[in-house]
Design brief:
595 residues, alpha+beta, 19 helices, 24 strands, 24% strand
Amino acid sequence: MHPFRTHTCGELRLDQSDQEVRLSGWVHRKRDHGNLLFVDLRDHFGLTQCVVETDAPSFKILEEVKLESVLTVTGKVDNRSDDTINTTLPTGEVEVRVESAKIESAADPLPLQVNSETDYGEDVRLRHRYLDLRREKMQRNIALRSDVISSIRRRMIDQGFREFQTPILTASSPEGARDYLVPSRLHPGTFYALPQAPQMFKQLLMMAGFDKYFQIAPCFRDEDARADRSPGEFYQLDFEMSFVTQDDVFEAIEPVLHGVFEEFGGERAVTPAPFPRIPFDDAMLKYGSDKPDLRNPIEIVDVTETFRGSGFKIFAGLIEKGAIVRAIPGPGAGSRAFCDRMNSWAQKDMGKPGLGYIFWRDGEGAGPIANNLGAEKTAEIAAAAGVSDGDAVFFACDMPGDAAEFSGTVRTRLGDELDLLEKDVFRFCWIVDFPMFELDDTGKMDFSHNPFSMPQGGLEALENDDPLTIKAWQYDIVCNGVELSSGAIRNHRPEIMYKAFEIAGYGPEDLEREFSGMLNALKFGAPPHGGSAPGIDRIVMLLADEPNIREVIAFPMNQQAQDLMMGAPANVPDARLQELYLRHHGLPDPQEDPA
């Protein structure tokens, strides 16, 4: 007999009755029933009830063993009586009568209970993550992550993609987030950077003549945590293709995403391919967001012209100064009490002056705005928003960017408050036609998305069109309001890249200094190419129906980017710093004026 187990703790059934078996696992729970002691033994595969009588040689061992100790038991499989069958367990029809037991590893008193779903707080859970990971939900989530990655890998290979690895130690790149820097011992005063994404290298692979690339790529960004973003590192399905259009990229990745969500989504419906494509401008108008949750049926409409020069002087005056008005329908929200609650939320939680509204009853609009606007214009709004008796419309009036953003927030709030979101579905869409350029806070022209994207219209558009009207071959994939990835058809022509960067205020010398590797490669023949990089962590978070991305990562950092279990980041000895030609400056004094 094997020294540790003949079966796993999730394997025994009636077929093994009367067999002598050996199990090893963790002591999950103990119950003393007088003449009998019950011990639930757990491993990764499940749980088996073991029982020992008080006069058995192994009783004292099992009586004294503490929860989460590792135990090996040997005994015969017995059928449970009808009244003791546990239908919630796959092994619930049998139990093991323990004949001998051995403690493989004794556990100290526990800082958190594995056999409980009690929330012990992030600090305790992450400091003792090895215990937290033993819990049923975490075992399920991390196993799901592994299965999802395996499925993605198979699906990509079946489509003819090859898996390559790209460097982890590379050069710093002026992208959207801060780099993690690594000092070089051999080259004093210089630094490597951990890659924010394999962007440059995957494009270089296409220029090197490979046709389809992918990897499950680690990415590193020194940015703040949030519910759908893990600080420090994350993983993405990074892929790139040569000689492709935007349609080709969509056709390649849609079956992979649809298949994975259908495979692991249980009974939840998945948007069939081809996924809806929503231009960026339409997304900002209808949903107030470039990552819309299509489970929410509310669509925002523009009613600026209805208010222009109207009797509602507050909005009319703001419109003359460049503001717009967005109307957000509230189906079933047609009561003054509900509307007043939304107004209070806008003031107290969102810091807004208020949230104007009209609600409909007896065929007419009611409320201060309706009274000032008049019956004819109120009817125009009802028709535009598609509302009737029992409904309401809320208004966001502000400069275009702020009005779009706030109207999207109101839409989300209404969807939640009115319980409008479609249940048990994964709703995918593509956001396409992003603007190539935008004005930053200082009024300077800048790239709005990825500077290496191909502008729609190519060099001719860059030379002749207003930059703010130029669209790019850029796209995002969104599921249930969560952005899974950005992607683009890349700019593969140096002259177009020089011109695009010139519009954004960068000279040829800036481009050659910052991106010489990429630029030089483009000068030796580059194929048209494009790709994307859906986030693995976010995919698993959606499939596991978890609100926080740290629930699907085995060893995440906390919100302050600390690894409490391993004690990172940590100070290092001065001797080690000297090897790297660095000096220890100590921590800044919080009382000291940095100026």
